[in-house]
Amino acid sequence: MRVAVVRYPKLELFGLYTDSQNRLKNLAETAEIYGSSDERELAEQLKGFDIVITEPMMPTFGRTFFDFNNDVKLVFVHGRGYDNVDIEAASEKGVIVARVPGWCENEAVAEHALSLIMEGAKKLWKARGWVSEGKWAEVGESGGYFFSPSLREMSIGIIGYGYIGSRLAKILKQGFGTKVLVYDPYVPSSKIEEEGNIPFEDLKELLGQSDAISIHAELTKETYHMIGRKEIEAMKDGVIIVNTARGAIIDTEALIEGLSIGKISFAGLDVVEGEPLEGEHPLLKFPNVLITPHVAYATNEAIKCMDHSTVDAIVSFMNGKPVWETVELKKRRR
């Protein structure tokens, strides 16, 4: 079998810290390809390859790709997101789409989300600004300007209760005694309640009761701009928003408006719509917005797990065994 590692260029991380590249080369004929942003050209580039390893964002494996390529039998995403792959089109062609198991990234991303929540809750961005502006001596006269709630006092809403969302919930609940509210229409309410959290059937109801909101949903047609103007209007004044999932789940214009009028007190974003951002992007002008460059997953432990699970999946495929974790079209819980 022939394997293509499609770099674009973030997948340079694959095998960088491990022996996974050598292991892969011992299993199959392997080539590194810089994938075209044009699906038809990409389809031509990957003719003759049975397996593709790609990154979550780019290039795009849409219907056009699958219409013009009949050789690829497995697309393995080196990450959790797969919004650059048309699952329906792949399924129609009999192509398996899989990704790294959720436990590879759950600890890393949950920790990153918690860091962003605490940045907003403890007003660290504001305190840092005062020190850099020479206002240290004025803190005692600020009249509670830096007073903040403890995590024990807060109600934190989690949107998406998969590996990462549920791990963050556990850290918050068991580590800080936080009241955790959960919205995920694909997870039974009984499971959420068993783990000591409060399930919500209505997203806006959760938004209205949350002091901070952390997003951990996958980007789908259903979740695109899930958080828009109406949803932000439903939130508490001074809410904290954290997103370590996918940027397009939040409507950027609505987010900017919410920040401008003070509805949102802090936004911590590891992902943004249309990333990477240019230097003049409006979000970069807000001191109460902290943006990290899509690195929440990037711990030594997570990268090693992602690399090894990628090769393990390819071995399973080559041996005719089930591939973990195969992506299928989700069905909403009734």
Give an overview in words.
- With 334 residues, this protein is α/β, with parallel strands linked by helices.
- It has 2 domains: 117 residues, Rossmann fold (3-Layer(aba) Sandwich); 188 residues, NAD(P)-binding Rossmann-like Domain (Rossmann fold).
- Helices cover 34% and strands 16% of the residues.
- It has 12 helices and 12 strands.
- The strands form 2 sheets. A 7-stranded parallel beta sheet has the order 8-7-6-9-10-11-12, with helices on both faces. Strands 2-1-3-4-5 form a 5-stranded parallel beta sheet.
- The protein is elongated and about 70 Å long.
- The model has no long low-confidence stretch (mean pLDDT 92).
Fill in the keyword field for this structure.
single chain; 334 residues; Rossmann fold; 7-stranded parallel sheet; 5-stranded parallel sheet; 12 helices; 12 strands; elongated
User: How big a fraction of the residues is strand?
Assistant: 15-25%
Label the overall shape: elongated
Helical residues, percent: 25-40%
Measure the end-to-end span.
Answer: 42 Å
H and E order: EHEHEHEHEHHEHEHEHEHEHEEH
Quote the CATH topology of the largest domain. Answer: Rossmann fold
Overall pLDDT score:
92
Specify the structural class.
Answer: alpha/beta
Number of strands: 12
Over all CA atoms, what is the radius of gyration? 21 Å
Strand order of the main beta sheet, please?
Answer: 8-7-6-9-10-11-12
Question: Considering the protein shown, what is the CATH homologous superfamily of the largest domain?
Answer: NAD(P)-binding Rossmann-like Domain
What low-confidence regions span 5 or more consecutive residues with pLDDT below 50?
A: none
CATH architecture of the largest domain: 3-Layer(aba) Sandwich
Number of domains: 2
CATH class of the largest domain: Alpha Beta
Largest sheet: 7 strands, parallel
Helical element count? 12
